[in-house]
Amino acid sequence: MSSNTPSSTAPCFINYIVVALFPTLFFVGIVLGYLNLISLKVNMHSLIIIGVIYITYLLFIKHNANYAICRMRKEYINLQKELQKSIKENSLTIFNETKSTINITNFISEYYKTFRNDNFSSVAPSFFPMLGILGTFTAIALSMPDFSSTNTEALDRDISLLLAGVGTAFYASIYGIFLSIIWTFFEKRGLSKVDIDSHQLHEVYNSYIWSESELSRHEHMQDEIRDQKMINALKETFNLEFIQTLNEKHLENFQTIINETNKNFVTVTNHMQMVSTDLKDTISKIHNSQSALTASDKIEQNIRDFTKTTQELTNSIHRFDSSLENALTLSFKKIDNELGDIIVKLANFANSTSQQNYILQETISKYHQQISNTIANR
Hints:
2 domains, 11 helices, 81% helix
């Protein structure tokens, strides 16, 4: 990155002389008038006051824009280096393109402040006229006669001196206003040079700086990307295919539970049929055989088998209830009701079977007691 604007090679004291030229010529005229070399009447105190204003103006010149821009151009290479450094430090990459977010106008304005005091330059246009007015009143006060004389000729002489002093005193106000005009002219001229340099730097480094429109467009694009990501996330969250797949998995798990439960019911039914058959055989043996003890043992074994089978049925029922709680309860409420009816019927059956077992045990006990008594009588 480089600029086509060359550094200023002219010495800055020339700019200083240019700004001070007309005020100096004015002051030289005042001095010549005091020396009576020209037809301009100036007294001593007016010369001193105007001289003080002139020296003050010379001290202010280093803060004038026309002089400060010369010093700034002397440091033009350093200005470019600082600007390039700031561009790198404030770089921003957007879509694989890297530029800086720096504001060149603000940068130049801040850099320009290192060469002069803006406070002095801003008060100068009003300060010099006020200083001239102060000098005018001071000169009038110093040239004011006492008017103590009662002689007419002396009084006329005092009035003439007063008028002459007042006339020369106004030179201070005129000089102050003249300095304000000269200062404003060169101030505006210097600021126009600053604007020209700023415009040239903008043209050179514009391709390395993000414009406000580009940054605004990028911000809107980022908002659109975030909105699109949110929409995609919502679509993925509420994906109908995903929900359908989840329902199918639940249905498969529920079908597996139903199949296992049916198998358990078949097994329990087979066991109950076997137990029922054994009970019938046992009862037949009790009535038709003399081996009562063997029949009693067989009945007890069948009862234990029946109790075990009933326990397995209860465990199966509990597992089935637990599975139904984790499945889609609302979708299979009717199945829950039917299974509840089955469980109630099975419970009633178990209760009835238990009562029959109790009656059977009493019958066996009585039969066993009769056999014991018969054997004892023999």
